[in-house]
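In response to a reviewer's request, we include the raw inputs and outputs for one of the modeled complexes. The two entities were modeled together in a single run.
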Amino acid sequence: MEARVNRQILLVEKPAGRLGPEHFRLTEAAPPAPKDGEVLLRVRYISLDAANRAWMQGATYRAAVEAGTVMAGGALAEVVESRGEGFAPGDLVFADTGWQDYAALPARELIKLPKITPLTHLLSVYGIAGLTAYFGLLHVGRPKAGETVVVSAAAGSVGSLVGQIGKIKGCRVVGIAGGREKCDWLTAELGFDAAVDYKAGPVFKALKSAAPQGIDVYFDNVGGDILEACLAQMNVRGRIACCGAISQYDGAPSGTGPRGVPGLLVIRRLVMQGFVVMDYFKARDQALGDLQSWVAAGKLKVQEDVIEGLENTPRALIGLLAGENRGKRMVRVG
Amino acid sequence: MEARVNRQILLVEKPAGRLGPEHFRLTEAAPPAPKDGEVLLRVRYISLDAANRAWMQGATYRAAVEAGTVMAGGALAEVVESRGEGFAPGDLVFADTGWQDYAALPARELIKLPKITPLTHLLSVYGIAGLTAYFGLLHVGRPKAGETVVVSAAAGSVGSLVGQIGKIKGCRVVGIAGGREKCDWLTAELGFDAAVDYKAGPVFKALKSAAPQGIDVYFDNVGGDILEACLAQMNVRGRIACCGAISQYDGAPSGTGPRGVPGLLVIRRLVMQGFVVMDYFKARDQALGDLQSWVAAGKLKVQEDVIEGLENTPRALIGLLAGENRGKRMVRVG
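The model returned the following structure tokens for the whole complex.
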């Protein structure tokens, strides 16, 4: 067996304010040796997600990441050596490998994946992003044909799929994104009915013209002011699917929440529901079946943003938090 | 027919800040003559509700009340003369008569009520308050035996019933109320497991010891800081039934909402749901049946706070907003 080096990116310290390159450090170690029940993995593509930043703020649906350790993160990886049941070299898996070339993990923590082309779709439309869009919109938001669906971070990995699934279900779809270019892409390429550029002026007013019938389902990826603007325009019995709060992750969390909670919830009988995609995994096969058929039929366009090289993972995340990506961002490692 | 006078309480102007007696004026007019299809009603008991104040802020689930008109409000009333189908003199009804001795209303806007003893129960446990507690807790909050239910404005008309229904369903119940006396009443008389006096110090800490296992269902009558304190202590998959926001009604509405929205909703997969009791009226018979059997079995104690005289209605509402009532407040008119 050739001599191998395991490059690792450590979280040096947890950021108090905005995340920067200084919070990470690249180091090298020998690849780990799998113990009994474990599997040695070669990381192929690391998934970048706004949640990576949220993990630095404290415990979420998982334990907080700690300073001085390899930065946590989900990845598409290939089995190199297996001492765990059910896995053989060459198998593809999704796992929380962290930001490194190799990881040894218990077999029970791995999700086996099929070999499809392109592989990257396993991290985008058939990965957490696709399932989050699917379950969040259809199971939490529950849009009916003819209703108006609004989604924020609409050019991102989840948002770009939410809007397209909304169109497949016969809804009027409005995306909120940063910049003219992204907005044009949403309407011209992805079939959104309208897009609101939150960098171009107050969202409330632009949204009012983009969604003149009010909002029936708001898929919230951002929280903060945009959530507040949407809340005020919700129709009676509207549903807000709370997926994330990217506006709140990179800095000190806000000391207040959106105006209108709980007053508007009562008056308009709204439901606001937070969800975590893992809770819906029992219905995963159905979801993947639908997503695959929509991709095959050309109804669902998949946008990916692949950055090359493990060493670029920190800046890939920093850029994602600044909104520079379009579609699913990932880092190709090996 | 004897000469009759219709005393009326007008809303002189909508309050910009706190509601005071100066916002109302007592006047007299001739009783209205019912038109074809209408019914002339003699008001017996006027229901006082925090929502009365919310109606002054703007449209809610009903149109806003307007300055210069008779103050709106639901009441238990008796049919004096009927030109509408299905009603005869002597019938009891619930209707939005407004604050006055007599009202003429279309028959279709009246809800016929049975003649029970005491009549006042038709406005408390078998009225809007009881149904709100029942549907809000059981259909929106959906508590399971063994779970922890927290209710705010717990000594009020709705809250006092919510807590007792929670106990009937096998939950641990914590009430939040203002003052030692109310809190003692909740635990000593109504069977609450614990009570938190929000006037005695920060709610967060006191709630932490009163609900050491966290909160599974929070029935929110108040909004504001207390909602924020509860939100932070919700368990995974907890449910918040948003019934009202009494802390926000009497003055300028808050410019912000509770911290933790939407962040905590996502992390803990919470549902916050606003509701209006009328939406559940199709299941009214079932609810009334349950409430009656619980009252008959002595499991549900009904507390009423009856003020005498139409002229005292303004101060009855002002006092309710200040939290001076225990149980259902109403005004006996005639």
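As requested, we also summarize the result in words. The longest strand of chain A covers residues 38-47. The radius of gyration of chain A is 20 Å.
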